[in-house]
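Hi Y.,

Following your request, here is the sequence exactly as I used it, all 153 residues.
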Amino acid sequence: MRNRLFSILLVLMMVVAMTTTVFASSASKTFTSRDTMSLYLAPGATGNSNAITFNVYGLPTGAIVTKARVDADTIIQHSGMGAILSINASLKSNVTNDYVTLPWGPGNITNFTTGITGGNGAWSFYYRGTNVSSSYDSAKWYQGVTLTIYYNY
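Below is the corresponding structure, written out as tokens. Let me know if you'd prefer a different format.
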């Protein structure tokens, strides 16, 4: 009986000593597109801007993307007498065939927290807008748009 009790205690001590707890590390990395994103619309028209590309690199192998944030806060030019209302934003990673589309975020910042998978490689982004003027053309250009990838590894 004594040996059996000792054996059970020894097994329990080994289980506790050999249990390993793993914590995922989190990090983020920001990339700036070299492209200019532009949209030109006739009065009352709705359309998509051109897609810009981000060259994502330096993410660890096996990184799990938890969030992507696109900051298009730098408008470099607006022309025409109309006004373009940004409706939604679309993001596609290097490993997905489809864009994830969300409403355009406040302050020209859109946070993608669902449907985002990917890693190193080319990511694409564009937005959809409407010229709210019924009489005048309008155009908008954005440059220096940034993509921040949040990930666990």
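The mean pLDDT is 88.

Thanks again,
Q.
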